[in-house]
Design a protein that fits this description.
The protein is α+β, with helices and mostly antiparallel strands. It is built from two helices and six strands; from the N terminus they run E-E-E-E-H-H-E-E. The strands form two sheets. It has a four-stranded mixed β-sheet. A two-stranded antiparallel sheet has the order 1-2. It is elongated, with a radius of gyration of 24 Å.
């Protein structure tokens, strides 16, 4: 007679971003009866990637956007590409078109501090709160 394996706990081995192996115990009855499932995970060995090139976009009452942060130029670029896709009613743009949008967006945003997208949306750098 074969012994039936113990299924009250399932053990799963995972690797973190640093390559360390982590063991996760899944209980068989986790979430039964309550509609939720619970995963016991040791988070003390996990590496969380925090970006420094971030940006915030705030919608103003007049419909325009103000952006702030080190990555504001890249955020405006991605918003410009999205607006161009919507205007052309396509799912993607050729790489050459995206590069042209990126160049013109960066130039206008750096020189003028604001840009008007193809759908008419105005995006500008956040005004200084101190002045």
């Amino acid at each position: 007679m074969k012994n039936k394996p113990d299924t009250s706990q399932l053990i799963v081995k995972m690797k973190t971003a640093t390559g360390e192996e982590v063991t996760v115990n899944l209980a068989e009855n986790a979430g039964s009866g309550k509609g939720k499932s619970f995963l016991q995970l040791d988070t003390s060995k996990m590496l969380v990637d925090v970006g420094y090139n971030t940006a915030d976009a705030v919608r103003q009452p007049d419909g325009s956007w103000e952006v702030d942060g080190q990555g504001s130029t890249d955020l405006v670029y991605s918003m410009a590409v999205s607006a161009e896709r919507k205007a052309r009613k396509v799912g993607f743009l050729p790489r050459q078109v995206e590069r042209k949008i990126a160049r013109s967006t960066r130039l206008a945003f750096v020189s003028n501090g604001q840009i008007t997208l193809s759908d008419g949306t105005v995006i500008r750098r956040q005004r200084s709160r101190l002045s």
